[in-house]
Write a structure and sequence with these properties.
Elements lengths: L2 E7 L4 E7 L4 E5 L6 H13 L3 E6 L5 H4 L2 H8 L3 E3 L4 H13 L12 E2 L5 E4 L2 E7 L8 E5 L4 E5 L2 E2 L2 E2 L9 H12 L7 E4 L5 E2 H7 L5
Length: about 210
């Protein structure tokens, strides 16, 4: 069984997710740790709970979701997994950092590419890769059917949706991604977003004005 731990990191208040099981193996999703204190917080939680990081996953390549990629990759000897359509956006992240006055040490090593429909396995648990572009060209979400939750990145939020005014964004594609990939999930599916509080698919079906 997976336990979901949420950290809110960086001035952009990004949600970093740590998924771990009874075997103490874990997956780090979208490490947004920007300051040394935030990196220490993530590291200390992992060490104090005797967790073993097995995978580093990115929902997409915007700077706030990859601030900590290099730290996690080097500290735990992991290779970031990301959709191939995010490669250009990921490479641009340091430039974005300078534009937002948030310079950071960017990961520039090997990447492992995710595919739509792919299964991410953590012992007896499974996450399915859902292709949910629109906020960015290759955004993905990670769905755990057995435990009824989805990590949606910046695609779907409580009473809102991801912005599409950044390079590579497309509002029409975003809405179609949400309707075709997320709203088809069971209504009690918990949605863990890239920012803000969690919600459910049913809540967003009934109350999200952007999806009317």
């Amino acid at each position: 069984m997976i336990t979901v731990k949420v950290f809110e990191f960086s001035p952009i208040q990004e949600n970093t997710y740590l998924l771990y099981n009874e075997a103490k193996n874990c997956i780090i999703i979208d490490p947004g740790c920007y300051t040394q204190e935030e990196r220490d917080e993530l590291y200390q939680f992992i060490k104090s709970n005797e967790l073993i990081p097995m995978l580093l996953l990115n929902t997409h390549g915007h700077l706030d979701h990859v601030f900590g990629n290099k730290f996690v990759a080097e500290t735990f000897q992991l290779i970031p997994h990301i959709h191939p359509l995010e490669k250009e956006l990921l490479a641009y992240a340091p430039v974005s950092g300078l534009m937002y006055n948030l310079p950071f040490d960017h990961y520039e090593g090997e990447l492992i590419y995710l595919e739509a429909g792919q299964s991410i396995i953590l012992d007896t648990d499974e996450l399915k890769v859902l292709f949910t572009p629109g906020h960015s060209p290759g955004s993905v979400s990670f769905y755990c059917e057995k435990q009824n939750f989805v990590i949606s990145g910046d695609v779907l939020f409580k009473n809102s949706v991801g912005r599409t005014d950044l390079p590579g964004g497309n509002h029409e594609i975003l809405i179609q991604s949400i309707k075709n990939q997320l709203l088809v999930l069971p209504e009690d599916t918990v949605v863990y977003s890239g920012h803000g509080v969690k919600t459910t698919i049913g809540e967003e079906k009934r109350g999200n004005g952007y999806l009317a």
